[in-house]
Amino acid sequence: NSSGMRRPMRAVQTRRYLYIFNPWADGRRRLRSATMGTKTFRRMQELATTNEAVAQRLRLLQYREREEFYDLQDDPDCLHNLIAEPDLVPQLDTHRALLAHWMRRTDDPMYDTWLQRDDEAVISAYMHEQRAIEQKRRNWRKAIRETLQAQTQETVETSNEGQEEGGRADAIAH
Q1: Alpha helix (H) ranges present in the chain?
Q2: In the chain, fewer beta carbons within 10 Å around the N or the C end?
């Protein structure tokens, strides 16, 4: 995402329901994205100080939940997470199975973590791995940026030297 922080998610949606798995969501890690710099988001932050519904929505946008389950027919804006709703266990199990099938079929590297989603040690190890990947990527980007800056500086210096030499040659010839 735009912050450069790895916040992997997986989801499956049918006509009626949406199931989302957020292994990074632990109530402490925040999701940061480009939309959080918008006027709309800033306005939501202002409204959240006096409106509990907006405050709850803002919290969900920033922190998510480990698992989310929404009824798109009755709640198209996904305002009410139904993950703990006992009457919806069959539908939730169906969507978990759909996601598991897709993850297996696509050889998703998060599959084993998803299978053990209730084991905090597994989730923690996965997120530690994600942070290591994130750090490698940052170091790689920094090295590229520094290399490009050095090449640009060399080009500018070479160009300036060529102009100085050319100017001297013109002055001597006249």
Answers
A1: 39-48, 52-63, 89-105, 111-115, 120-173
A2: C
- Cβ atoms of residues 26 and 16 within 8 Å: no
3-state secondary structure of 99: helix
Residue ranges of the chain whose pLDDT lies below 50: 1-3
pLDDT value at position 65?
A: 85
How big is the chain, counted in residues? 174
Q: Which residues of 57-91 are buried (b: 16+ CB within 10 A; e: fewer)?
A: bbebeebbbbbbbbbeeeeeebeebbeeeeebeeb
Q: Which helix (H) or strand (E) holds 18?
A: strand 17-21
Q: Which residue pairs, CB below 8 angstroms and at least 24 apart, start in 51-58?
A: none
Q: Which of 92, 118, 84, 85 is nearest to 18 (CA)?
A: 92
Query: What is the signed CA dihedral for 66, 71, 76, 78, rounded to 10 degrees?
Result: -20
pTM given for the model = 0.68
Burial of 110 (0-12, 13-18, 19+ CB in 10 A): middle
Taking only the tens place, the pLDDT of each residue in 96-144 is 999 999 999 999 999 999 999 999 999 889 888 888 887 887 788 888 9
